[in-house]
């Protein structure tokens, strides 16, 4: 078992502590939080060992899970990697692209593994269909949430939209060509609503909308490709696949058949893949343990985390040009 520790014991940090304790792949050694008063209270309440310094925690671990505010990600990650320990780091990977590239290069230099906490990659609805998404040419994603002050230290792009950016980059096998975006600040100092149009070199276009001041929650993505439409509801953990194939000469009476202007007939088939229940955060932590044990590339590598941040920053830069 890998000895694991957590840096940062806020809302998400407490969830990671609980799941690392449950995992059969890790031995939870404890945590460090800069707020020592709160750390001692958590230690007394739940029994997790509180370390008096970041360095002491890192020394006691094989893998360190960084769940601090984003602004502190780089400093924490740098210490973890230079100590020769494996790194799991929450999204966004760092506060700047330069920091992300540095972390990626440092991990390679020191021979350690790193994974970014892009939890939607482990959403069971996405996992049920991602192997069916082949060369999508149009993608539409909506990620809407009600207001939560906890996430407003960063733009809605880094808070919410980056989930969809990462998921899209994982299925579109092409480089980003252009990014167009607009954003509006309503409550926060940074944009609370954003829309981005991402154009890829292969012609694929992705239209993304994110809001953290909506009246209702929504996390949906739709992928359109030749002869297929794939829908993923990340919130409800549901998915749907609609495929079109050449219609048989004698379709049955209940078949849905479309005929185009050239007279070509296509039959529509509906498929609702089985979605297995899971705990996505536990699964991503366990998958990292397997990557370390098998010396393989993590499911969401530091390079992929840097790529998602790079596109997110292009979106944010577009706001400044408006």
UniProtKB/TrEMBL annotation:
- In this chain the GFO/IDH/MocA-like oxidoreductase domain maps to 153-217
Q: Which GO terms describe its molecular function?
A: nucleotide binding
Family matches, as InterPro entries: Gfo/Idh/MocA-like_OxRdtase_N, Gfo/Idh/MocA_Oxidoreductases, GFO_IDH_MocA-like_dom, NAD(P)-bd_dom_sf
Q: Which organism is it from?
A: Patiriisocius marinistellae
Highest taxon above the source species? Bacteria
Q: Name one Pfam family in it.
A: GFO_IDH_MocA_C3
Annotated Gfo/Idh/MocA-like oxidoreductase N-terminal domain ranges read: 3-117
Q: What is this protein called?
A: Oxidoreductase
């Amino acid at each position: 078992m890998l000895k694991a520790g957590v840096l940062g014991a806020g809302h998400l940090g407490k969830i990671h502590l609980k799941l690392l304790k449950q995992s059969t792949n890790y031995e939870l050694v404890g945590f460090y939080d800069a707020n020592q008063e709160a750390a001692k209270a958590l230690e007394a309440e739940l029994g997790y060992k509180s370390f008096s310094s970041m360095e002491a925690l890192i020394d006691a671990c094989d893998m360190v899970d960084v769940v601090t505010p984003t602004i502190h990600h780089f400093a924490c990650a740098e210490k973890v990697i230079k100590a020769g320990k494996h790194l799991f780091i929450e999204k966004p990977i760092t506060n700047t692209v330069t920091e992300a590239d540095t972390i990626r290069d440092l991990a390679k230099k020191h021979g350690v593994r790193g994974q970014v906490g892009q939890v939607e990659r482990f959403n069971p609805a996405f996992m049920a269909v991602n192997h069916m998404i082949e060369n999508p040419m149009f993608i539409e994603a909506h990620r809407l949430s009600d207001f939560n002050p906890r996430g407003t230290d960063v733009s809605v792009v880094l808070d919410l939209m980056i989930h969809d950016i990462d998921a899209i980059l994982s299925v579109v096998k092409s480089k980003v060509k252009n990014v167009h975006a607009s954003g509006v600040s309503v409550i926060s100092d940074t944009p609370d609503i954003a829309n981005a149009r991402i154009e890829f070199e292969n012609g694929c276009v992705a239209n993304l909308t994110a809001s953290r001041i909506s009246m209702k929650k929504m996390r949906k993505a739709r992928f359109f490709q030749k002869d297929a439409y794939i829908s993923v509801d990340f919130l409800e953990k549901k998915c749907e696949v609609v495929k079109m194939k050449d219609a048989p000469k004698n379709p049955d009476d209940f078949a849905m058949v479309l005929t185009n202007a050239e007279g070509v007939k296509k039959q529509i088939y509906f498929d609702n893949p089985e979605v297995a229940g899971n705990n996505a955060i536990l699964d991503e932590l366990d998958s990292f343990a397997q990557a370390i044990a098998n010396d393989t590339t993590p499911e969401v590598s530091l390079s992929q985390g840097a790529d998602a941040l790079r596109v997110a920053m292009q979106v944010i830069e577009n706001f400044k040009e408006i």
